[in-house]
Amino acid sequence: HMGTDGRIAARNALTCEQFGKECVLEGKVLFENLPFLVWASCTVEGPCNRIYKRSLIEKQQLLRFPEGMHYGEDFLFNLEYLDRCCRAVFLQKTLYHYMMWPGESLARKYVPNLYQGQKRQLVRLRRLVEEHGALTDANRGCMANYEVGQIVKSMMALVSPQCPDSLVSKKQQLCAMVQDPLVQEAFADYQYLEPQYMAIPRL
Predict the structure, then answer these.
(1) What SS3 state is found at 102?
(2) pLDDT, mean of residues 129-149
(3) Are 120 and 132 in contact (CB under 8 A)?
(4) 186, 151 in Cβ contact below 8 A?
């Protein structure tokens, strides 16, 4: 629903059930919905809850997980895959269970230089949607919501006790992030931010 300031004040987690038993998103429609899908669900980023067409991967010899990345490489792979297939089928039926153990998931561990990797993903996502002529006023807010979420995650990683950087280095990196045009544009367009982070846009 909308808050008193006109921004989205709450959201519901998206599951494939909201699409019905089966939903096929194809062509421009897929990319128009992509900002919402990446922001509101876990149906796009990872590789473990989907089935890929092997012949397409083999045909596109350059379609590989990017080397040198230790976090987010699966999301970049998925974006390149979607760019080539331009079609995705979402099923309501549960076919996969993903079990996470405390401290074992990379998503819950400190990742050095997280923002650099996150920025690479965000830039590719926005470019992909733009290349397919699918960035609209309607989905621009969802795009910014996702970008802000990833930016905040990077900021929180810097102030985490697990981060070995000095206090001066942390402040310098935070200042650089705040001054990044991508960050400034995202915070100008976002519609939703977790309540505990509402002070960040005033930085």
Answers:
(1) coil
(2) 92
(3) no
(4) yes
Residues 6+ apart with CB under 8 A from 71: 106, 107, 111, 114, 117
Spatial contact of 115 and 151, defined as CB atoms under 8 Å apart: yes
- Helix (H) / strand (E) element for 92: namely none
Burial code (b: 16+ CB inside 10 Å, e: under 16) for 135-167 equals beeebbbbbbbbbbbbbbebbebbeeeebeeee
Model pTM score: 0.82
Residue 18's pLDDT band (cuts 50, 70, 90) = low
Q: Which of 112, 199, 195 is nearest to 154 (CA)?
A: 112
Tokens of 64: 């590989």
pLDDT band per the 50, 70, 90 thresholds, residue 128:
very high
For residue 58 the two structure tokens come to: 């083999």
* Identity of the amino acid at 18: Q
